[in-house]
Amino acid sequence: MNKLKVTLVVLLSLFFLYGCVQTNILDKVGLTTLVGYDKGSEHKIETTAVIREVNPEFQSKVEVITTENDTSKGNRMEANRRLSKKIMVGQMRVVLLGEELAKEDIRYYLDTNLENADVSNSIYMAVVEGRTAPFLTYEYKDIDDIGQHIYKLIEQNVRQEFMINATLHQIAHDYYSIGKDLAMPIIKRDQEFVELSGVALFKGGKMVSKLPAKDSFYVKIVRDTFKVGLYETILDNDDIPSKILQKPTDKITIAFDAIHSNRELTLVDAKKPEFDLDINIRSRVLEVFPDINQGDRKSVAELEKAIEKKISKEIARVIAHSQEVESDIFGFGEKYRSIVRHSNLTREKWHKLYKDMKVNVNVKFVILRDGVFE
Amino acid sequence: MTKPIQLSPKDMISAYLLFFIIHGAQVGVGIQGFQRIIYIDARQDAWISVLIAGIATHIVTFCMIKTLEIYGSNDLYGIQIDIFGKWIGNLFNLMYIVYCFVACFSVLRNYIEVIQAWLFPSIGTWFLSATLLIIIIYAFTGGLRVIVGVSFFSIILSLWILPMLAFPLKYSTAESLFPILENDFRSILKGAHSMTFTIIGFEILNIVYPFIKDKEKIRKPVHLGLLLSTLIYLAVMLVSITYYSGGKLVKTIWATLTLFSFISFPFVERFEFIAVCFWMIIILPNMCFYLWAAYRGATRLWNISGVKFVWLFSFFIFICSLVIQTRTQINTMNTIFGKVAFYVVFVYPILLWPIALLKKNFTSKKVKHNEQA
Fold first, then answer.
1. What local confidence, expressed as pLDDT, does residue A239 receive?
2. Euclidean distance between CA atoms B349 and B204, whole angstroms
3. CATH (one of 3.40.50.2300, 1.20.1250.20, 3.30.390.50, 1.20.1740.10) for B9-372
4. Substitution target from A112, A114, A120, A264 for chain B, most B beta carbons within 10 A
5. pTM reported for the whole predicted model
6. Choosing a second label site near A105 at 20 to 30 A (CA), which of A13, A91, A365, B281?
């Protein structure tokens, strides 16, 4: 029994010794909530960090510090020299990349964040139109904490499926996979606002093109599935079957939400290669202008047809654009690799194939219901 | 034949507890990052490698039980002395003790490396190893029944980690698994071979056998324990292959922990930090069983008391943990140990069975012959 007591005493003392481990007390650390990278002069990295200092007595302070150094950790050290508090990155939520830098190679910025155990895999990444430093240091009239603001902005847009989801994990997944290229939201300053302005397409680690924000719907519908979502489109004159209209008009604007979509990809011909892309969409129509008789089964069917045609056309356009810049953000290559045995697919090989790939887009659109007022 | 081990009933344990012993001794540090090692060999067919390795454990265990049954109530140390004679047998016993020592040490060092990489980079290795060693010394001094209790609670308490595997499924794509069997059979087997370091532990059966009360009932719990381990490894592997892309999996050192880094609750921002800490409960039975197995061997070689042995053993482990410091050293140790363990755990028992059979036939004939004469 005595021996047990001795071991217990030793164990307890060691247990309390764990308290001597380096502590990180909230009011003594500066929390980095956002980091923006830019291309600096002479191969250096320019980092802009948004650091939140929590102060128990006063309102917390937000500092935006720009430093230039050879590595991102060097920048952290330099930022540390300017602050009274220790800088921690555990609460980092967003990583922004300057456009110029994104056009070169983003690999370093991925790896440096993946390697650090303090950085969560669920942080968001985005490309900034122009440089990040002026974007972050600009004094927005109504935004207190630019780091938190951008995080919430991206998060709510991703949650509502207005924007493609680009977390560190997904980006690294796509970057390190053969047959899928990564895509990120583009963010920019518009007067006193911060705005998601589009989708950046990458080829390997280089940004090669961008699509406007409106097209993110099509990107998303081909990339993965929808569960909520909201979308509006304009049906042009030649898309509209004249029968369903009560009065002649040039175009119909239409908006639908509560979108459920799934996509199915089948490889028809491995040599060319040729894919069938079947997309099923079920949604609720919110707005149709001018009015269409939605009580009539026939005219609803006609309307569905018209929307199907419109969406197929747009999807085909978006895919064609991505083929032009050789950026397979939809993951056709992954499908190809998973079906064709011993394809020995490399990224270069796939980009070549992708350019001449043929896709047959089939959209099936079902209007589940309309609103409460016809 | 050597005398069977005589034990009082209060030292014995029930057969069904073998389920917890086998499973608790198997699952440990390996599962934190075995995916990339297998993936390098077998690519998207890595899960088949896991399955093959799992089947191999059943076959080996079958041979082990057969060998043990020949001797009634004896452990591997006794069997080796009987088969190979006093000198060579004792040499083999000594080697087995060293094997247990290295196994115990590698579990400890790998876990400390994980803590240092994820949580406290500045904390000293000596401090963590001293703390962990004192815990296992504490468990060891309680005897086998306490160690079995530790493994029982280690499994029951860590069951909740399993459902966490469902979270990463949100980002999984089944496409990553196809085409199935694209890689040739040799690379899949090579992947199964790389599973050694992760899947070993069940060889503890060789030592624990004499302590089982109802020996005719051991097959079911032993094989169920192995099955559960295989299923867990398989589930983790499948989730990992579909969650990561190939290139990312190869570069992720502790893929299981990184898998958890996505999970966050309103009250826990980073779930993997909890998982890393909680892993200590999972590795405890690992270390306790190896320590205990080494002690069983040592009592046959030298006249040494349990308390003396455990302090000596821990002291050496402590010294070793000071020597091996860097990641490269740890990786080299793991690779070499994995290779040796393959022969000790997978090849040796299969060879031992026919030898033991031959020996038994030979001696029984001799006895008969003597009787006739």
1. 67
2. 12
3. 1.20.1740.10
4. A120
5. 0.89
6. A91
What are the φ/ψ torsions at residue A51 (nearest 5 degrees)? Answer: -120, 130
Per the model's pLDDT, the better-predicted residue between A4 and B99 turns out to be: B99
Is A14–B131 a contact, with Cβ atoms under 8 angstroms apart?
yes
Query: Judged by CB atoms within 8 Å, which residues 228-257 of B form the interface with A?
Result: 244-248, 251
Phi, psi of B35 (to 5 degrees): -60, -45
**B248 vs A177: CB contact, 8 Å cut-off?**
yes
Read off the amino acid at residue B110. N
Beta bridge partners of residue A211, listed in sequence order: A199
CA-based nearest distance A1→chain B, Å: 11
A173–B117 C-beta distance less than 8 A: no
Comparing CA positions, the residue from A199, A23, A43 lying closest to residue A126 is A199
Q: Which of A1, A169, A336 to mutate to test the interface with B (most CBs of B within 10 A)?
A: A169
Q: Measured between CB atoms, which of A7, A114, A176 is closest to B137?
A: A7
Q: Give pLDDT < 70 ranges for chain A.
A: 1, 237-249, 258, 291-295, 371-374
A244 with A213, same domain? no
How far is it, in rounded angstroms, from Cα B20 to Cα B226? Answer: 10
Q: Is residue A7 part of a domain?
A: no
Q: Output the pLDDT for position B214.
A: 87
Mutate to test the interface with B, among A337, A344, A350 (most CBs of B within 10 A): A337
Rounded Cα distance between A350 and A337, Å, is 9
Domain that holds residue A234: 225-369
